[in-house]
Amino acid sequence: MMKVAGNFAGRVLIGLGLLVWCAGCERGASSAGPSEGGAEAAATADVLPAGLLQEQEPAGAMDIIAVKAAPPANGEVVVRGVIAGRAEPFIEGRAMFLLADLSLTAKHKQRHGDAPLSPCCAAEGASLANTATIQVVGDDGRPLRVGLRGQHGLEPLAEVVVVGEVATPEGGDALVINARGIHVVKR
User: Are 158 and 148 in contact (CB under 8 A)?
Assistant: First the structure.
């Protein structure tokens, strides 16, 4: 019983820590992306790195659950998933989104047939075990101040392949990946 309570408490603390960290990123900078807040927001927004949004699908992609079960020794990872995990999987004004394991879409099809997966429905099945936080960071290690939603087809429920490096804090249960490449899978 104590171990279960300890794991739950640890997950709550990690979640709260991520929220505080993201809130700390907001200080002194506009949270709006270039298209969301006019000239002032555009002046404070970062620019996405060249080559981040890739036309070619990277080879060797793994599911999120597989990466969590056996993290790569060198930290380099290619992961496939669907942008989901909560009703709004993007962090407004930041180069961050939540990626859910493709098993969520398979479970949805089993339960609901061909009915389209909605962000809220995906959020119901998402958990720390089958999601990853994807972020594009600057030289300071913080997420860039630019929204990713709408960039090159990045929308809720889009299937993507992400190339990057595992950046999960030591002892953390959440999978965090610093992305160097993002490919939107066309269906």
Answer: no
**CATH fold of 2-184, please?**
OB fold (Dihydrolipoamide Acetyltransferase, E2P) (2.40.50)
Tokens representing residue 17 in the block: 């820590």
| Residues 6+ away with beta carbon under 8 Å from 113 | none
Give the tens place of pLDDT for each residue, 86-108.
889 999 999 999 999 988 766 65
8 Å CB contact between 45 and 33 = yes
Structure tokens at 165: 């490096």
Q: What is the pLDDT of residues 103-130, one digit of tens each?
A: 876 665 556 555 555 555 555 656 778 8
| Cα 10 from Cα 172, distance rounded (Å) | 8
The 8-class DSSP code of residue 33 comes to: -
State how far the Cα of 105 lies from the Cα of 41, in Å rounded to an integer.
36
